[in-house]
Design brief:
By secondary structure, this protein is of the alpha+beta class. The chain contains 13 helices and 10 strands. It has 3 domains: about 110 residues, Butyryl-Coa Dehydrogenase, subunit A, domain 1, CATH 1.10.540.10; about 100 residues, Butyryl-CoA Dehydrogenase, subunit A, domain 2 (Beta Barrel), CATH 2.40.110.10; about 140 residues, Butyryl-CoA Dehydrogenase, subunit A, domain 3 (Up-down Bundle). A 4-stranded mixed β-sheet has the order 1-4-5-8, with helices on one face. A 4-stranded antiparallel β-sheet has the order 2-3-7-6, with no helix packed on it. Helix 5 packs antiparallel against helix 6, helix 8 packs antiparallel against helix 9 and helix 10 runs antiparallel to helix 13.
């Protein structure tokens, strides 16, 4: 595929754009759907996306999905972000669902993947107060009883969408230390002993603390193999980093287009401010960065689809690093181009900036991505 969209992907893009323009094309619509920006996820909109069959874009047809690849999911995520569609639960859901697709039992796949395609929300619980970038330092522990069941105790933090999820994929320590002895578990959020407490952020209600107190899980809650969680996590990094990159590409495009529209109309000293060289050159630089990001993401997604069993640590980290840093730069510089209006909530640029800033932190910080890329060169 390279960097070009297929005819089917072009049609899909147009359909998502039409949906976004119709359902949340105005600020008044978006404010009503998100409680003035506090809630990034709207259940009604999410149900509509499910009804259209779009939430299963990259899930297998046998489990209710559309059978598309990572490139198709990236197209969808980019356009959802560009259209400011309040479907904040999707990205974590699809990242989590892909782990079940790769490692889950047939029963788990039927239940979890089918549910995800039909609009249920999933969450993945890795980070802890003492283990963020250092996933190997996890201390939340699951102990197996003689009857085969598991008893889980511990705390997770910064868990996206736990407050709206039906289930979470929990990563807990079952033996050993560091990267050895981690195991994945399927945990319905209604399980006794699971408590969710929201964390207020610049972006509204997105992340949570999750406390697990004497949580009892059945033997078949294990996803994949016991003590093999680290390798299973690594197998999904292509998905996570590409999906995050595609989302930030959509946000960067939206911030850029909003700013260009503004500087084309806003006049000072008798002419549109966008015609001044200082702004015209800034627009040129940002447009070039966005296009480079788009080409990188599409190329990496095409490579991952062509070789689904292969890890692309360098390329996936490059895509995540480039897209998130570009989105942050674009939003900040677009705010500067708009002057005081960029800072005002009326125009929405400040919302773009708040969403972009955190993207260089979650899903592996920019520093971690640079470290990974450097290591692939033997450094």
């Amino acid at each position: 595929m390279g960097s070009r969209l297929t005819p089917e992907q072009s049609d899909f893009t147009a359909a998502v754009r039409d949906f976004a323009a119709r359902e949340c094309g105005t600020k008044e619509q978006r404010d009503a759907l998100t409680q003035n920006g506090r809630e990034p996820h709207n259940p009604k909109i999410y149900a509509m996306l499910a009804e259209l069959g779009w939430l299963g874009v990259c899930l297998p047809e046998e489990y209710g999905g559309s059978g598309g690849g990572l490139a198709d999911a990236c197209v969808f995520l980019e356009e959802v972000a560009y259209g400011m569609v309040p479907a904040g639960g999707f990205i974590t859901t699809v990242i989590t669902a892909k782990a079940y697709e790769r490692f889950g039992t047939q029963e788990q796949k039927r239940a979890v993947l089918g549910g995800a395609a039909n609009g249920t929300v999933l969450s993945i619980a890795m980070s802890e107060p003492g283990a963020g970038s250092d996933v190997g330092a996890l201390r939340c522990r699951a102990e197996r009883d003689p009857d085969g069941t598991w008893l889980v105790n511990g705390q997770k933090t910064w868990i996206s969408n736990a407050h709206i999820a039906d289930a979470m994929l929990l990563v807990a320590r079952t033996s050993g230390d560091k990267h050895k002895g981690l195991t994945m578990f399927h945990v319905p959020m209604s399980t006794p002993g699971v408590e969710v407490r929201g964390i207020e952020t610049m972006g509204g209600r997105e992340v949570n603390d999750v406390f697990l107190t004497d949580v009892r899980l059945p033997a078949d809650a294990v996803v994949g193999e016991v003590d093999s969680g680290w390798g299973q996590l690594m197998a999904g990094l292509n998905n996570e980093r590409l999906f995050l990159a595609a989302t930030m590409l959509g946000l960067a495009r939206r911030a850029f287009d909003d700013a260009v529209a503004y500087v084309s109309d806003r006049e000072q000293f008798g002419r549109p401010v966008g015609t001044f060289q200082a702004l015209r050159h800034r627009v040129a630089d940002l447009a070039t960065e966005i296009e480079c990001t788009r080409l990188l993401i599409r190329e990496v997604a095409a490579d991952c689809d062509a070789e689904p069993a292969r890890l692309f640590p360098r390329e996936a980290s490059m895509a995540k690093l480039k897209a998130t840093e570009t989105a942050k730069r674009v939003a900040l510089e677009c705010m500067q181009m708009m002057g005081g209006y960029g800072y005002a909530t009326e125009y929405g640029m400040e919302r773009h900036l708040r969403a972009a800033v955190v993207s260089t932190v979650y899903g592996g910080t920019s520093e971690i991505q640079r470290d990974i890329i450097g290591k692939t060169y033997g450094l």
